[in-house]
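Budget justification aside, the reviewers requested a transparent look at the raw inputs and outputs of the sequence design task funded under Objective 1. We therefore reproduce one unedited record. The lines immediately below are the structure tokens for a 1450-residue chain.
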């Protein structure tokens, strides 16, 4: 091909272009023709040397050049046959001379041959010669940094210099040429300014005429104008060789212009320039001028004296000079003021004082040196204004007035520079730094702050919650994002901060302590109990499984932040945190501290819920990694050596990993089965339980903890009936451990830190035996079911029998006897009490299961119980130490001390914590001195013994005679329980166990203990209070209380000892409610009305039927009851999870005595909603309602305090359900009688005073809506029943909402004709309706309208007639200052009243005086109007008749 050839026009001859189809020969012909014509090519080819090659190596240098130096293609040297190239080169390389490579060439060898060392690159560097370059000072600007410019801003048309330059060099040269005129507003201004300054400065004229006389103005002016060289413009910035000539040309032009101007024009132009130019620019120009003059005349002058410029300004005309000085006075004053300020700064404030010999330090920049000053002292005085909290690097709160040295590194912040420490906002900002150390430090400090905040260290110092503030600011996701950081330090810091946020060491400590308590293995899930209220909108027909699925779908559709707002753990799981933690453990393999933090975080996540446990189990390789790396069967024995510092925890057995597996197993029996079988935890159990802790080749403390957690994991598995096959394999190990337990007594006096851990290990072993014994006790039952032909699911019996476990009982009983001997040694007993508690629980479980075994002789079992009672328990109860323990119940009780379980100040609802205000002191339910665990186990054992051997009940009568127990029970039921929180629910559950066993023992002793009758009401009140307080998971206890305690006639001795007669006697003497008022009449035909005593007597006799009624209405709790019974009865094969149900509140609502009424009302409402007929209601509806009312009447009469937690308004609302259910159900005689009796109770003065219909009522969305329904029902089916009417009238009292009265007088006026409750039967004083006077103008108009129109009459509705007359009379005669509208309305009503045709109504409205219950009307009348009212009436009527007042006759 020919390169660089294009058609050219030469000598009027045009060469044609090659056409398609022409051959190589044609192209060569065109080339020769072009060369022969000697035409110039259209393109000039220039080959530049490659800078990357150093010296150019041209392979074509040896070839002869053409004489014309044209790029000609030669075909002579080409071979005839083209070589076979594989592959053909697509492009010629610029680096290598030969770019064609063959198949047999080795690429590695080719790279090695042509490799160049870095020295070859550096050896070719040639430094540019800058010796001839002019150096110019940068142009000063007012900005802190030079302005950034782009070469596109410079005009490319500027022609500078000559020679070949790059585009960038040309642009830079053009910029330097434009710099000089850019320093002034315009070119013209620059020229005038330079000339003016040269003229007006006397030093400037001295250059040409140093000896001129200053008094001769003409000569001086001449000297100025004959100056030959410029003083300001030098031309150095032009960047060309003719710069000086350009500057001189500008100077000459300025001189010419000045010579053509008069002195007035020069002064005017000077004033204009001084007004436009920046004073700093003027000072710079003057200093430049003074410097040039000083150098030429060798005169020493002081710098920074701009005031001399003003003082030496002289011009030929004196008047002009004076005016010029006045014009410049402002500049003079500002310069002098700046000078004085600089001197003050230099003398006082500057950390570095500049000296005259320092170059370029004469201009002091105070704002730049301000950072070097000493910080001012922090504010010392305390003010009411809150200050921003600042923390040290250790997470401590720094007081606002703390004066800390700066070398501590606590002052690197801008705001409040004098205060030490960093705010949360600054730490958040630092956590997003690009520097690894800064991000790590910020996360570490935030983690320490969170840890101290959760410990309550800031509660008394800070306003608000630190944790809540951090979570609202996005702290959780900051940690989550930091967890994904690739830097190990940042990752470790985020793990530590996340542990501080989620994990509470105190929570884990107390959960481990209560593990061996009665039912201590079961625990509530750590799920927040105040989730969003959207779940309340779910339909009631949905089952629990459907609700959980719907809830799960909603959570999946929500953003992570929304989920984490109400549940942090669920939000973290939604971000797949378990996968990231698995990656860190498996791949990153961090240091031991980070590993332990991760294991604690995983443990906390596993405590959240069963769903969280499933997600952890389903995480790929998470459990495998933990089991393989941190629960190996063999490891390096050097880790057990004293002083050995572990650099990695991988490959070493760890107690924290075993605890995580144990908590994970508590999530469900399926999870436990997966852990034991899929993840080979059985082999780990054998490995870590078969060997004594001192032989585990681990540090002693870690070995004991690991062994303890292994036994606890085995106990959890045995609680499901699993892993019992290991019992027989490890039986010798268990026997050896049990034989060594009495040795703990010999070491109890030694202050050994391992002693408490050894006691916890022993308690874990005994807890394991408790569950193994329970499992073995079910073997016979399961074998019987397996052999039967039932179609139900067959459960295989466990691989452990009763004969295999019964042999350990003597060891445990012997140890318990020895441990009970030290009960009087306070310090020793506090340490050994957990182990003794498990002994008691074991014996209770053992004898309960033993009595059900067919292979055990019942006589032998009874004899053992008698021996245990006489030899162990009775002597124990008689010891003085036991009296002290009973006395400690009340001080340590959470019920008697509700503040002890109040949430901690830093608790947030989205993170469940067991922390309480004040922590867990020794005198608390879980404190070291708490008697609750031991006494609960003791009562459990006593109830197990008395359940088997009824003859021993009287032997334990002394238990209920302890004054400490009676005082505790009396105080506990009367004190309002604390609000249900995770901490309170966890503690109260254990306290309720003790109360339940005390009540069960009291029930067994009913009728046998002579002192029982005096305390029967106490036990019944405790049972009623406990029934409304029991939490989910204790459904079995609630069922037993309903079955044997709540409706037991033995606990209601009033029915046997004259209670009904006392009620009748009270009514006769009017000590309580009037018998006449308590029985409103009925529209139905009825016989003689029964007295309240007769109603109570019938209710007492119907207690069995009442119990059956309530048990049938609690059938919806049956599924939960089955799970609870399996746990409390020891049927391990039915237990599904050790996690209890979520706590939303007590099992039964506080108003459970009204539950049948509420249930019937809900069924009726749902039936009407679906369009069903009312016949779908139960057939025994009358009996159900009657039994419900009987039970409520019994409680209100004989146990009124048990219902005091239910508001009176709620009680009335429940009774209103009678009228809203079943049409005319209220007309049934028994229902009517009991409802009237209860109404008389709720209309007593104390009850009426406590009635509040405006407050929210439990279980009721709106009382107004309920009342509207009641009015509609009254219009339809009331038949004018007075009892129904009283319920309609009760909410119309004056102190309740006006909307209730408006609904009667505005929307349902038709009921006024049927609301005929006689005044003598109305149980509420009318003063509650008439006082204070009505002030609602709309309601008053309704009152007046119904009276005038005749809709409200005394014969139809006497009660509301009195109310309406009283309020209208008070309104029309009121002379209080009010609004114009109200004044006009009352005068209008008064005129209309005077003009009424109905004289009776007119007399009532005008002459109303006072209420009088004895009067037939219900009020008294004036015989004649009082003078003040008569005068007011005359005044109103005179205005109406324009002075023609009628004669008023009284």
């Amino acid at each position: 091909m020919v390169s660089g050839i294009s058609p050219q026009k030469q000598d009027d001859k045009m060469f044609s272009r090659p056409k398609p189809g022409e051959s190589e020969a044609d192209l060569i012909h065109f080339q020769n023709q072009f060369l022969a014509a000697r035409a110039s090519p259209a393109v000039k080819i220039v080959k530049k040397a490659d800078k990357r090659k150093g010296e150019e190596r041209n392979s074509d240098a040896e070839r002869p050049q053409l004489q014309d130096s044209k790029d000609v293609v030669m075909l002579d040297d080409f071979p005839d046959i083209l070589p076979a190239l594989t592959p053909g080169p697509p492009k010629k390389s610029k680096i290598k001379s030969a770019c064609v490579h063959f198949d047999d060439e080795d690429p590695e060898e080719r790279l090695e041959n042509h490799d160049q060392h870095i020295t070859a690159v550096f050896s070719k560097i040639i430094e540019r010669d800058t010796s001839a370059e002019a150096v110019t000072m940068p142009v000063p600007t007012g900005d802190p940094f030079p302005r950034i410019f782009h070469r596109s801003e410079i005009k490319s048309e500027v022609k500078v210099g000559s020679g070949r330059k790059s585009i960038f060099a040309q642009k830079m040269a053009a910029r330097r040429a434009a710099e000089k005129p850019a320093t002034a507003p315009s070119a013209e201004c620059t020229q005038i300014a330079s000339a003016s300054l040269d003229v007006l400065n006397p030093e400037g004229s001295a250059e040409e005429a140093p000896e001129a006389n200053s008094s001769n103005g003409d000569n001086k002016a001449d000297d100025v104008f004959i100056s030959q060289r410029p003083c300001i413009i030098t031309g150095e910035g032009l960047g060309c060789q003719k710069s000086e000539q350009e500057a001189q040309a500008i100077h000459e032009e300025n001189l010419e212009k000045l010579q053509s101007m008069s002195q007035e024009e020069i002064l005017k132009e000077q004033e204009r320039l001084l007004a436009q130019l920046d004073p700093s620019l003027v000072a710079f120009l003057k200093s430049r001028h003074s410097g040039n003059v000083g150098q030429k005349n060798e005169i020493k002058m002081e710098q920074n004296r701009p005031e001399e410029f003003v003082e030496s300004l002289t011009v030929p005309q004196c008047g002009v000079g004076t005016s010029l000085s006045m014009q410049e006075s402002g500049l003079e004053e500002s310069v002098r003021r700046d000078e004085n300020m600089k001197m003050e700064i230099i003398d006082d404030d500057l950390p570095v004082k500049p000296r005259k010999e320092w170059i370029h330090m004469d201009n002091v920049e105070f704002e730049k040196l301000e950072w070097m000053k000493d910080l001012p002292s922090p504010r010392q005085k305390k003010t009411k204004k809150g200050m921003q909290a600042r923390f040290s690097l250790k997470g401590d709160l720094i007081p606002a007035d703390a004066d800390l040295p700066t070398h501590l590194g606590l002052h690197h912040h801008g705001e409040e520079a004098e205060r030490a420490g960093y705010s949360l906002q600054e730490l958040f900002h630092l956590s997003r730094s690009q520097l690894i150390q800064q991000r790590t430090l910020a996360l570490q400090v935030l983690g320490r702050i969170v840890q101290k905040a959760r410990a309550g260290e800031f509660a008394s110092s800070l306003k608000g919650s630190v944790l809540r503030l951090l979570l609202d600011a996005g702290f959780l996701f900051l940690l989550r994002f930091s967890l994904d950081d690739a830097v190990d330090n940042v990752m470790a810091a985020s793990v530590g901060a996340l542990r501080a946020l989620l994990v509470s060491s105190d929570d884990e400590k107390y959960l481990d302590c209560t593990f061996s308590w009665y039912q201590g293995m079961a625990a509530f899930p750590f799920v927040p109990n105040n989730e969003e209220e959207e779940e309340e909108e779910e339909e009631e027909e949905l089952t629990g499984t459907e609700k959980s699925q719907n809830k799960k779908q909603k959570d999946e559709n929500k953003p992570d932040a929304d989920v984490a707002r109400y549940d942090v753990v669920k939000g973290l799981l939604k971000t797949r945190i378990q996968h990231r933690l698995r990656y860190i453990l498996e791949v990153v393999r961090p240091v031991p501290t980070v590993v332990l933090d991760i294991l604690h975080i995983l443990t906390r996540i596993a405590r959240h819920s069963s769903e969280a446990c499933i997600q952890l189990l389903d995480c790929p390789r998470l459990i495998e990694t933990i089991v393989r790396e941190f629960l190996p069967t063999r490891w390096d024995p050097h880790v057990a050596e004293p002083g050995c510092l572990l650099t990695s925890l991988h490959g070493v057995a760890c107690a924290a990993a075993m605890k995580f597996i144990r908590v994970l197993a508590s999530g469900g029996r399926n999870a436990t089965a997966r852990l034991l079988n899929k993840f080979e935890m059985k082999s780990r159990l054998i490995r870590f339980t078969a060997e004594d802790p001192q032989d585990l080749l681990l540090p002693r403390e870690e070995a004991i903890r690991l062994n303890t957690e292994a036994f606890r994991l085995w106990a959890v598995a045995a609680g499901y009936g699993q892993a019992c096959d290991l019992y027989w394999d490890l039986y010798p190990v268990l026997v050896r451990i049990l034989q060594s337990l009495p040795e703990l007594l010999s070491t109890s006096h030694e202050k050994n830190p391992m002693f408490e851990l050894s006691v916890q290990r022993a308690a874990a072993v005994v807890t394991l035996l408790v569950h193994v014994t329970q499992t073995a006790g079910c073997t016979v039952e399961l074998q019987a079911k397996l052999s039967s032909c039932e179609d139900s699911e067959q459960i295989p019996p466990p691989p452990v029998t009763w004969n295999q476990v019964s042999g350990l009982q003597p060891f445990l009983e012997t140890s318990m006897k020895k441990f009970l001997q030290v009960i009087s040694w306070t310090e020793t007993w506090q340490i050994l009490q957990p182990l003794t508690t498990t002994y008691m629980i074991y014996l209770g479980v053992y004898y309960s299961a033993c009595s059900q075994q067919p292979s055990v002789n019942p006589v032998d079992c009874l004899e053992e119980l008698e021996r245990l009672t006489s030899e162990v328990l009775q002597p124990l109860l008689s010891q003085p130490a036991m009296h002290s323990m009973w006395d400690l119940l009340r001080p340590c009780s959470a019920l008697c001390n509700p503040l002890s379980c109040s949430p901690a100040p830093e608790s947030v609802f989205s993170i469940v914590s067991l922390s309480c205000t004040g922590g867990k002191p020794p005198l608390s339910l879980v404190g070291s001195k708490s008697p609750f665990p031991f006494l609960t186990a003791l009562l459990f054992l006593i109830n197990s013994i008395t359940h088997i051997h009824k003859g021993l009940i009287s032997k334990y009568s002394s238990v209920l005679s302890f004054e400490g127990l009676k005082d505790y029970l009396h105080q506990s039921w009367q004190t309002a329980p604390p609000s249900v929180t995770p901490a309170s629910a966890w503690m109260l559950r254990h306290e309720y166990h003790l109360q339940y066993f005390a009540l069960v023992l009291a029930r067994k002793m009913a009728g046998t203990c002579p002192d029982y009758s005096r305390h029967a009401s106490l036990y019944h009140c405790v049972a009623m209070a406990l029934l409304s307080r029991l939490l989910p998971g204790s459904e079995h206890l609630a069922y037993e209380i309903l079955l044997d305690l709540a409706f037991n006639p033995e606990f209601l001795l009033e029915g046997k000892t004259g209670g009904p007669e006392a009620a009748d006697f009270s009514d006769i003497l009017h000590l309580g409610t009037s018998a006449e008022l308590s029985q409103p009449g009925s529209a139905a035909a009825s016989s003689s009305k029964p007295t309240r005593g007769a109603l109570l007597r019938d209710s007492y006799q119907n207690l069995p039927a009442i119990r059956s009624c309530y048990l049938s209405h609690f059938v919806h709790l049956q599924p939960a009851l089955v799970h609870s019974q399996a746990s409390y009865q020891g049927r391990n094969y039915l237990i599904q999870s050790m996690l209890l149900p979520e706590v939303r509140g007590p099992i039964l609502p506080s108003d459970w005595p009204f539950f049948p009424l509420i249930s019937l009302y809900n069924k009726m409402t749902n039936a009407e909603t679906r369009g069903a007929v009312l016949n779908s209601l139960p057939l025994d509806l009358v009996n159900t309602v009657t039994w419900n009312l009987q039970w409520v009447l019994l409680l209100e009469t004989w146990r009124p305090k048990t219902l005091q937690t239910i508001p009176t308004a709620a009680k009335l609302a429940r009774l209103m359900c009678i009228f809203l259910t079943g049409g005319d159900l209220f007309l049934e005689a028994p229902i009517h009688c009991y409802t009237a009796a209860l109404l008389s109770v709720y209309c007593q003065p104390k009850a009426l005073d406590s009635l509040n219909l405006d407050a929210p009522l439990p279980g009721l969305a709106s009382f107004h809506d309920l009342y509207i329904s009641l009015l509609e029902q009254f219009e339809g089916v009331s038949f004018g029943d007075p009892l129904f009417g009283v319920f309609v009238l009760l909410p119309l009292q004056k102190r309740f909402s006006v909307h209730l009265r408006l609904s009667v007088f505005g929307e349902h006026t038709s009921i006024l004709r049927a609301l005929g409750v006689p005044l003598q039967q109305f149980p509420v004083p009318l003063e509650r309706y008439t006082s204070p006077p009505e002030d609602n103008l709309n309601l008053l108009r309704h009152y007046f309208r119904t009276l005038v129109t005749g809709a409200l009459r005394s014969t139809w509705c006497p009660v509301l007639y009195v109310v309406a007359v009283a309020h209208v009379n008070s309104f029309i005669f009121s002379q209080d200052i009010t609004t114009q509208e109200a004044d006009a309305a009352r005068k209008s009503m008064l005129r209309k009243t005077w003009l009424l045709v109905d004289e009776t109504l007119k007399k009532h409205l005008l002459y109303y005086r006072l209420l009088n219950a004895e009067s037939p009307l219900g009020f008294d009348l004036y015989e004649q109007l009082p003078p003040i009212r008569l005068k007011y009436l005359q005044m109103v009527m005179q205005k109406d008749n324009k002075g023609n007042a009628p004669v008023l006759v009284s």
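The radius of gyration is 51 Å. The CA atoms of residues 525 and 609 lie 5 Å apart. Computational costs for records of this kind are itemized in the attached budget.
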